[in-house]
Amino acid sequence: MKLLDKDFALNQPGTVKIIPEEPDDLWVVYNLIAIGDVVTADTTRKVHLEATKNTASRVKVTIPVKVTRRDFQKDSSTVRVQGRNIGTNQYVASGSFHTLTIEMNKGFELSKKIWDSTAVAALSETSKKSPGADLAVILIQEGQTEVYLVGNGPTTLCSKIKDPRTGKKSASNVFFRDIFNAFVKHVDFSTIKTVLIASDGPTKDEFRQFLLSEAKRLNMKTIENNKSRIVVAGCKGDLKEVLSDKGVMNMIKDSKVVLEIRAFQELCDLLDNNSGRACYGTKHVEAAQEMMAIDTLLITDDLYRSSDAKTRHKYTNLAESVRKGGGKVLVYTSMHVSAEQLAQLTGVAATLRFPLPDLDDADV
Q1: Is the overall model pTM greater than 0.90, yes or no?
Q2: CA-CA distance, 135 to 139, in Å (whole number)?
Q3: Backbone dihedral angles phi then psi of residue 233, each to the nearest 5 degrees
Q4: Is the CB of residue 126 less than 8 Å from the CB of residue 28?
Q5: Domains of the chain, residue spans
Q6: In sequence order, what are the residues at sequence separation of 6 or more whose Cβ sits closer than 8 angstroms to the Cβ of residue 213?
């Protein structure tokens, strides 16, 4: 994330100019923009110019919209912002609805009435340029292959490659070459710790061999020098099932997503076998924190960065309290493989330093 200019202070109104530089930046932008903010960005509008009344032309305009809705587009890693135009422009009527698309390497301006601690911290953290995804998964299935980047922020589907030989037992070199090209485009070993090639059957091994052979033929030292970080695993099912497999987790044990999955599994095990050492639900978690009992807080991004200011303030204060008490805080984005299960447990849960067997019976 590149900050071109910033003019704001904590708990004061202000503006920042931003250029997202990678997919994870767009996820931060999505969570940073709240309903009621003003986003100013370039867009195009179809208009009929005087000289060409019978022909519509697209004109580039810069407009500010007061946000009424924003959506994250996972496959394209873009943010769509909808709202009313609050500016004056000869091509876009003031008060009319318009949609802006925020994408990588496209600058925009964000204005807030209040820059609270959550927004300031999120902007500060991402501008430090910490590594994003640290795991790449190449999931080879019958008929197609999907390339994912997994780590900080959302799990991103970077590429989907169709197999021209659908229904055949063995994959073609054309198919492998297309996967190879996607690998070269999306896998950056300066941030990626492990590349996992997964399939049901021998295709995973065949592609790894093809990958290394091509890298040697093309003298691609980056791939050759990191071949020990390219591992294979047998699997059936989708990405969630792959990353939940114990054998796979042992191979990618240093990945951030695995640490988060294991934390969630530990929570579930404690709830099943030692319920006094875990809890979920806002009231129970808050009660546990009042007794400084929380070891790890697990919370969904929908709560932690809620568009509702009161909700966001409530859960960021809870997380800050846990950190000050020496506990860990794990925030699960909506596209994390464990996020749906955590949401079913109300979206907030905790493992505890010591048992609180009477917590369920307490009047909280």
Answers
A1: no
A2: 13
A3: -150, 140
A4: yes
A5: 2-127, 133-253, 257-352
A6: none
Residue 200 has what DSSP assignment? S
Q: Which two tokens stand for residue 275?
A: 């319920």
- Residue 51: C-alpha distances to residues 47, 58, 59, 60, 61 (Å): 11, 14, 14, 17, 19
- Pair of tokens at residue 162: 């169709």
Q: Domain 133-253 is in which class? A: alpha beta
We find that the CATH architecture of domain 2-127 is Roll (2.30)
> Helix or strand or coil: residue 19?
strand
SS3 222: helix
How do the pLDDT tens digits run along the chain, 364 residues long?
Answer: 888 888 888 889 999 999 988 776 887 888 889 999 999 999 887 776 665 556 667 788 899 999 999 988 766 778 999 999 999 888 888 889 999 999 988 999 999 999 988 788 777 766 654 456 788 999 998 889 999 888 755 677 888 998 876 555 455 688 999 999 999 999 989 889 899 999 999 999 999 999 999 999 999 999 999 999 999 999 888 887 888 787 887 887 777 777 888 899 999 999 999 989 999 999 999 999 999 999 999 999 888 877 676 887 799 889 989 999 999 999 887 667 788 899 999 999 999 999 998 886 655 4
Instruction: In whole angstroms, give the CA distance from residue 314 to residue 9.
Output: 21
What span, in angstroms and rounded, lies between the C-alpha atoms of 225 and 40? 44
**CATH class of the domain defined by 257-352:** alpha beta
What is d(CA 169, CA 111) in angstroms, rounded to the nearest whole number? Answer: 55
